[in-house]
Design goal:
CATH class: Alpha Beta
CATH topology: Sufe protein. Chain: A
Order of helices and strands: HHEEHHHHHH
Helix content: 40-55%
Family: Belongs to the SufE family.
Organism: Tsuneonella dongtanensis
Protein name: Sulfur acceptor protein CsdE
Structural class: mainly alpha
Number of helices: 8
Shape: globular
């Protein structure tokens, strides 16, 4: 997975249509999430499309699997995951993920329908991290 900084640098140079294409590409690059992990417990509430996020790894290196049934939304969850992937659980739990995503200006780049679930994606990731950090 590309770093959030690398993605931001590329995103910065693109026009709106190419930004959509980049998000779709990021979604396609996500590590496959087994269907067995797509359960009610891993479902992100409040998203217009179905989004699942599942934590793996340990307190030192938290790793997430994620998926969505919509291409743009899958790209958005890929951005969220890129911000936190493979970092210590304690760091992720304390991280301001919304601030890390600020350079993408998602609220102004995408429809509110597509971005309404972003805070819930972030909350789920941070909640998972806090639980894992606490042991």
């Amino acid at each position: 997975m590309r770093s959030l900084q690398d993605i931001a640098e590329e995103y910065d140079f693109l026009d709106t249509d190419d930004r959509y294409r980049l998000l779709i590409e990021l979604g396609r690059e996500l590590e496959p999430m087994p269907d067995a992990l797509k359960t009610d417990a891993t479902l992100v509430r409040g998203c217009s499309a179905a989004v699942w996020v599942y934590p793996t790894g340990d307190t030192e290196r938290l790793h997430f699997l994620a998926d969505s049934n919509a291409a743009i939304t899958k790209g958005i969850v890929a951005l969220v995951i890129a911000a936190v992937q493979d970092k210590p659980a304690r760091e992720v739990a304390a991280m301001d993920v919304a601030e890390a995503l600020a350079p993408f200006d998602l609220k102004n780049q995408l429809s509110s329908n597509r971005t309404q679930g972003v805070p819930n994606m972030i909350a789920l990731v941070r909640d998972h991290a806090a639980r894992i950090a606490a042991g």
